[in-house]
Amino acid sequence: MSDTSPTLGDLALEVRSKNAGPFWVTVELFMRDEAGYAIVADEEFLDEAVVARLYDVPADGVRIFRIPSLHVVKISYPRPVSQGSLFDRDVHAGQHHVPLAVLVP
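Now predict its structure.
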């Protein structure tokens, strides 16, 4: 058994991704408490550049919505290919949450 730092997935109630239309993906981080929310809402830790790097998308297309009253951060970004197109590997965008879920604060 190794001693590892907790990931965002460990700190969250749920991390999920879904389609936001055929050209966008939304990832949602539902944090357990204010402390976890403070980590993911911190622009020094998680910003458009980080999302762009994780998902290989342009930073100027990333949108981040911080909702403190719910301890939720929603992130939307353009899909690399349109939903259902020939090169789409996840038509429901159900696996796009993984890079954020395994991110270590």
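The beta strands are 12-19, 24-31, 63-67, 72-78.
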